Amino acid sequence: MRATRRMLLLRIMVILTMLLGTNYIAWRWLFSLNWDAWWIAVALVAAETYSLIDVALFSLTMWRATDRPAPPAPAPGLTVDVFITTYNEPVAMVARTAEAARGIRYPHQTWILDDGARPEMAEAAAALGVGYLTRGPDWADRPRHAKAGNLNNALMQTEGEFLLILDADQVPYAEILDRTLGYFVEPTLALIQTPQQFGNVEPGDPLGSQAPLFYGPIQQGKDGWNAAFFCGSNALLRREALMQLGITRYVTEMERAVGRALAGAHRVLARARRTEGAGDPFVRAALAEVSDAIDETRAAIAHGATLGAATYALQQRIGAVSHELVAVDLHLLALDLAVIADLQAASGQPDAPSPLPQDIDQTVAALAARELSPLGALESVQALLRSIDVDRAHEAQPLMPLATISVTEDMATSMRLHGLGWTSVYHNELLAVGLAPEDLGTMLTQRLRWAQGTMQVLLRENPLLQRGLSVPQRLMYFSTMWSYLSGYAALVYFIAPMVFLCLGILPVDSTALEFFLRFLPFMIVNQLLFVVASHGISTWRGQQYSLALFPVWIRATTTALANVVFRVPLDFAVTPKTRQTDGPGWRPPWHLVRLQIIVAALLLIATVVGITRLVLGIGEPIGTAVNVAWVIFDLTILSVLVPAARYRGFEPAAARSEPEPEPERDIETDTDKDPRSCNSQ
Amino acid sequence: MQFTVDTPSEGIAVLRFTGRLNMVTAPRLREAVGTSVTAGRTRVVVDLSGVEFIDSSGLGALINGLKTARQAGGDLRIAAPNEQVRLVLQLTNMERVFTAYASADTAFDV
């Protein structure tokens, strides 16, 4: 009953916020733009529109946010693999997690997935009696796909019906499986995500590590639309769902890749047949034969031949032709082969995510553009076909169930699972406790990585365009991506008061009364909505970071765009889990936030200029007052970075008495976190 | 699950499985294909007539086997799937990759 009433109140707030917000933004666009200063006026109203859409997406999330009833107890006899992923974390930390994982009550098999292949890690695993998995020789010289690759490798070497995924620092409680496995009686359920919370965070959470709003109302809200995300750790997955995903992706990518390669081969050959060397009758016959083979293969596939049969027959035919040709002009061939080898080397960057199908397009384009001799064309066509054969020779394993299109494989994977019709659950009970970064530099690296990963997913598989997803599911994924665009809006919110205070230019063309009559009701209802939606969890720390880290968000969007469109590597960094602030010579890393310091200085200078203008009688009093208040708001936002930069890591309050303080079990602590992505900002 | 291996002619291996081809038994299929290919029998037929059930892990093992065989210059083909197996092939679109031959004997006639 109380829950129903709360939901009613929440929905009333949502409706009011949207009505007042739309009223305000419509008035801003239609009646209050200062066209004389359109450059700042349009920028500001665009930023405000961005924020309103953000609120709208948040409102939609909250519309169905409720507590789930507890699941039934799990049936006995289910098989579970517990995966602990590690790359370079200290062996002792991983061992602590592995020991706790071994102690999980429901019968299971624990595995350490060591991407660092460290002998001392293997020894620790053996000592604990848990399994130990590393990449096999198939992965040498092939894209490793970071954590997604690590998990995909382990999937092929284990056989449990369900998987529990844990980051190296996430120490599970013994009841984690008993509390969750029961959900899987629902045969369509693929994913159960539980909260992520950190045991090494000081009260006040200087680095904004905890995400009680995300791992609470927001995931519950997404869950209401069957769109709870996979967040990489503390989650259970159904193997059948992952494998099915891997297989359907394999087939889709094969069809696309084979189709494109055949079309490309056709173009390369057509060009070769027009060159001089093609006058040789022997060569001409060979080119014709291969052209025919390719055209017939395309026709066969179009008429329903399987990719396996069609590509096999094609390989055999082309193999026979090139066999006969080998002796003809070895010299000419050798020259071309060098070119082809270069092209292949250039397209096979080890860390480029998803080499398909873009690589084929690039190789085709490069080959078609070159003046290859007819023999070289034949050879290159063959190389091209080999590279796209159904065996996916460029990948360590043909099946990649965990998505490899992004450095945040988790979101991409759950989106694809939802797209196949699988369901997910968010289970709002803390069942594992981890370690958060303890210094600003590490925290910034981590946030940048998450933001980049999210942007990669947006650019590569825009959720709004995914046909398998329902409209609310599309919006739930899009909502998280949208929130990472806040850097640009923040920049405008910092610059607009500077422009007024220094130049006297107001972007809003209206009287103060008219403005506040529309703006204040919207703002107040909006803040009340946050209070109701968040169960009283403060959203302030999150709001601060979402604006104060604007350089990180902007950099994430530009680097992700460069990566997806121009294939510039992301400089991927694994988040260090150990403290970076020890040592006597330590100084707060102010250089990491120098852009924010510059902005703060400019805001202060602008305030001095604005007040001087007012004193000299040039400035306008109400406008100056409003903009000075705005500057104070901006500076309060940015001030979050001062304790963050000075933070030297976690010192447990009850310090040395207990070596392992029992972490707080209530997930709704008084720390703040922004309503954004899995790991959130 | 059990399996037998026949070598009807030079370079060809026929793997006959019975029972359930699922996440528990899939690794054995992968190993069996690997063994055949290493022994030079790179054209592999997986006879599914005795397989009553297949899941995505079973399909995954077939794809893995296909990769192993193709990289050795051979091929992997499937024969005689029952209704359930056909349905799974259809649902996952795997019927676009594998041709289901009527019997193991005819799989490499073409």
UniProtKB/TrEMBL annotation, chain B:
Q: Check the record and name the InterPro entries matching this protein.
A: Anti-sigma_ant, STAS_dom, STAS_dom_sf
Quote the PROSITE patterns the UniProt record gives.
STAS (PS50801)
Pfam families in the record: STAS
Entry GO MF terms:
anti-sigma factor antagonist activity
Q: STAS domain location, by residue?
A: 10-110
Q: Give the UniProt family note.
A: Belongs to the anti-sigma-factor antagonist family.
Question: What is this protein's name?
Answer: Anti-sigma factor antagonist
